[in-house]
Amino acid sequence: MFSLPDLNQSQQLPVDLEPEFEGTIQNISSPTGREAILTCSVKNLGRYKVGWLRASDQTVLALQGRVVTHNSRISVVHEDFRTWRLRIRQLRESDRGCYMCQINASPMKKQIGCIDVQVPPDIINEESSADIAVQEGEDATIVCKAVGHPTPRVTWKREDGEYMLLRKPQSRELIRVEAYNGTHLHLPKLERRQMGAYLCIASNDVPPAVSKRVSLSVHFAPSVRPTSQLLGAPLGSDVQLECTVEASPMPVSYWLKGGRVLPNSFAGAANGNYEQPGLSRPEMLLDGPKYGITEDRHGFRTNMRLVVRSFSPADVGTYHCVSTNSLGRADGTMRLYEIKIHPGGVQTTDDQLNIIGGLAEAARGRGNSATGSLHPTRTHHLLPMVLLLIVSLSLGTIRTVISASSDSSSHARTGNR
Fold first, then answer.
1. Most Cβ neighbours (<10 Å): which of 188, 226, 302, 365?
2. CATH for 20-119?
3. What is the pLDDT of residues 173-226, one digit of tens each?
4. Protein fold of 128-220
5. Separation CA 140–CA 404 (nearest Å)
C-alpha cells in the first residue's frame, strides 16, 4: 500500500545555504619593499571554493590554499575556515592595482581590494640642471625633475640657509623668500647677490626625501673700492691699506707702488696704463719682511690688505690695489703721506702743501680709483679734513709771521735807543 511521506521528516532534510561575504576588503597603502595583506572573509562556503585573481587581467593567483602563480612573493593564508588572506611580500611598483576575491558560486560572487604601492621620490639627473654660470644681467632657469608615487613636491632653497632673492613678476624689485615651490626656478636679469648654491628638495611623504645641489655662478668684471684715498702716518709706524674687490670668476689681485701721476697724464693712470710718457713704472709688491699682504674672501667679495712696516720717507707715494679676471680689470689708488709733528708749532713745508693739494684734489673727485673718479659720497668726508688742515697750517704760518715781526720791532727799538 502506497503511503504519503512524513512531512516532519522532509522538513529535517539538509538545505544548502548560499555563501556570502562578511564585510568588505580594506584597501592597503604601503611603500615599496614592505608587504601588503588583503583579507577576504566568507561564511557558508560549503562545497564552494575561494580564489584570488588580479583584477586588471583576470590572472589567477591562488585557489583555496594553493598558490598557482609562479611569483614566489605571493602566498595565501587560510584561517578559521572563513578567512582568506592574500599576502604579497617585498612590494614592487608593478604590484600596484586591484585584486579580486572570488567564490565559484552560480552566479559567481566577488569582492575587490586594491593595493597602492608608494614609491619614495627620486631626482632624474638627466633631466635636471647641472652647475651653471651666466653673465650678470642675463636670465637663467634651473630645473629639477623628480619621480615617485605620489607625485613628489619640488622645493628650492639656498644651501647656506639665507633667504632667496627672486624678482617680482613684471618688476625690477627683488624680494626675499624662504623657499620656492616648482620644478623650474626662473631667475631673470640675474644680480651678483643671487649667486650661490641652491638645493632642489623632492618629497612626497614617503621617506626619504632627496635633494640635489645646483651651483649658480654670476660672472662680472672686477670692481675695486679703496677704504680711503689718502692715508697719513708718522715715521716708524706700521700702516695698513685696504681695498674691497667684487669679482666673479675669482680674480687675481695684487698691489703696486708708484706710477706717480704727472701733469696731463691723469687719464692714463685712471685707465690702469702706468707705462706711458709722464708716468714712472710701478713696482709690484710682494709679501715679505717689508710688506704684509693678505686677502679675505667671502663669496664674490675679497678684502685686500697691505701692511707697510716701519713707515719711512721712501714709503711715501701712491699705492694701487689691482684686480683682474677673464672679464676685465680694475684698480683703486691710495696716496700715503708722512705726518710731521713739530714741537712748539706747525711749520708749513712743501710736503704739507702737497698734502693739502692732494686732499683738495680728492675732495673735488679727481683722485684715481677703479672707475676713474670718486663718488661724491666717498669724498664728502674729506672736506672737513681739508679745511682743518688748511686752518692749522695757516695758524702756524701766522704765528711764525707774528713772531718774526715781534723780533724785528724789538731790534728796531733797541737800535733807536
1. 226
2. 2.60.40.10
3. 999 999 999 999 999 999 999 999 999 999 999 999 999 999 999 999 999 999
4. Immunoglobulin-like (2.60.40)
5. 75
